[in-house]
Amino acid sequence: MFGALDAAASGVTLGRTWMDVISDNVANANTVRPAGEEPFRASLVVAQAQPGTDGVAVSALVQQAGPPDVVYDPENPLADGRGYVTRPKVDLTEEMTNMLMASRLYQANLSVMQQARDSYAQALRIGSGA
Amino acid sequence: MTISPVGATPFVPPTISTGSTQATHPSAFAESLQKVSDLTGSADSLAEGVATGQLTDVHQFTAAAAKAQLGVELTVAVRNRAVEAYQEIMRMQV
User: Fold this and answer.
1) Which of A99, A106, B11, B64 is the 20 to 30 Å CA partner of A91?
2) CA distance, residue A62 to nearest chain B CA (Å)
3) Spatial separation of the C-alpha atoms in residues B91 and B79, rounded to whole Å
4) H or E segment at A62?
5) Is the pLDDT of residue A114 over 60?
């Protein structure tokens, strides 16, 4: 019963998870580590259609790939003997663009839920004369 | 070409199933009521989750509450139609 509501709710959950992950990425945009250590890597949400049922689910969180970004910063207390630190693998521009998409995804699914709910309520009024 | 006489085919009375394969009206109605009861039950448990702060997805509660509300409205609509039909028959001139 009410399949449209369930599918839209799973979409809202995906939007919420995506916003959570982006929030974590942006919060760690300045998480510097000593050179040679693995840098903080931004997480990417992988969405997947749910087989057999309606809706979507988060299938995995993938780490941002690429070589570590080692910069010279001798003033940094985390710098190694030669004055190098590892910058996090986070692209703020990309994250903010994704944030726009995530919040729009959230709103779009909420809108679908609202419309479906109104439609079901209208169907209950068939023939009631009102 | 020979045409077989009508009487040659024996009359086989149609078999009438005696229920149990098809859901009768009262049991179907009870099943629907059980579904609505489940919907309100899940909305209640999610409301507890909101109150205790264990629920991370707030929309799950609002979606469950909307489904429960629609289910109850549907039950009331069906009940009203049944009562209307009954009253209509009782008003019939004999």
Assistant:
1) A106
2) 22
3) 18
4) strand A56-63
5) yes
Residues of A in contact with B71 (CB under 8 A): 1
Segment (H or E) for A3: helix A3-27
ipTM of the complex: 0.72
Q: Which two tokens stand for residue A5?
A: 């509501």
Query: Using one digit for the tens of pLDDT, what is the confidence trace for B21-79?
Result: 555 577 888 888 888 899 899 999 998 988 898 888 888 899 999 999 999 998 898 88
Is the whole-model pTM more than 0.80?
no
Residues of B with CB under 8 A from a CB of A: 35, 39, 56-57, 59-60, 63, 66-67, 70-71, 73-74, 77, 80
Q: Is A75 exposed, middle or buried (0-12, 13-18, 19+ CB in 10 A)?
A: exposed
